[in-house]
Amino acid sequence: MFTYLLALLPVLLYFSNPIVQFFSPSPPQIRRLPRPQLNEDLLALEAANTTDISKYTCPPNTYRVHIFSRAPLVLYIENFLALSERSHLLEISEPLYQPSTVTHNAGETTSHAPSIRDSEVALVPRTDTVRCIEDRARALQGWRDEVWIERLRVQRYRAGGHYAHHFDWSTGRGGWGRVGSFMVWVADSDTASPGSEEGDGGERLEGGGTEFPYLKGKGDRRWCRFVECSQSQEGEEGMEDGERKGVVFKVVPGNAVYWENFMADGTGRGYEETWHAGLPVKKGVKVGLNIWSWGRIE
């Protein structure tokens, strides 16, 4: 009998994990509610006839996408914005800036809290150029059903400006929420004003990176173009520690990071790895563009 048990032990070990998973209770599925009424003031709703593009023609997309993480999905996008688009955003946002606020109670109230969020925000009008940026962000996500782009917001951070660690999603109530986020960099100097050109001079930006403390870093030194690395990581031997926990994306005007906020398993759970911050600006001015996608959680 003892011999039979010894022979059976490897079989039990081989199948133990699937068996445990089979008999373990599954995570509770989200209790879905009917779609809330869409707020046309805050969402960039498409026209009823989405095939009618006679009003504006968008340039071809020339960006390059690198997969940084698969769970959560995090994409690094080179050349998401053209220089002309960045100049346009700087121009239209200049007269619209207001102090940024912090949202409380699942979006019910807001307050001005510089210790948490110290920046200026501009809700930009939907010009033809802005609509092309919206279309680009929508297409990158595969034109998902019941997902809409929120109105675009330009954020300006002067010296000392920052945004403390936070989630972009506050709740997945009823199966609806902010499902995806873009952080797009528009400018990185104190010449970040209408009409400025690349290399105009001015005080160059120091600090201001976007930090994800729970996201795994990458072991390939080629990522050091886009993320902060130590000198040893940038050396010819590559990064020493392989995957590390925590990453800071550099401010590179025109480039962007996109990430998914919720797990696609029907539970409505958010990824803890999307906990992030806009680190303090030490010198210069940082201008960023927030593109958020709101809709049905998968």
Please give a structural write-up.
The protein has 298 residues and is of the alpha+beta class. It has one domain: Jelly Rolls. The protein contains four helices and 18 strands. It has helices at 2-23, 83-93, 128-140, 231-234, and strands spanning 64-70, 73-78, 98-99, 102-104, 109-111, 117-118, 120-123, 147-149, 153-157, 162-166, 176-187, 206-207, 210-216, 245-249, 256-260, 276-278, 281-283, 286-296. Strands 1, 2, 3, 7, 8, 9, 11, 15 and 18 form a nine-stranded antiparallel β-sheet that branches. Strands 6-10-16-13-14 form a five-stranded antiparallel β-sheet, with no helix packed on it. Strands 4-5 form a two-stranded antiparallel ribbon.
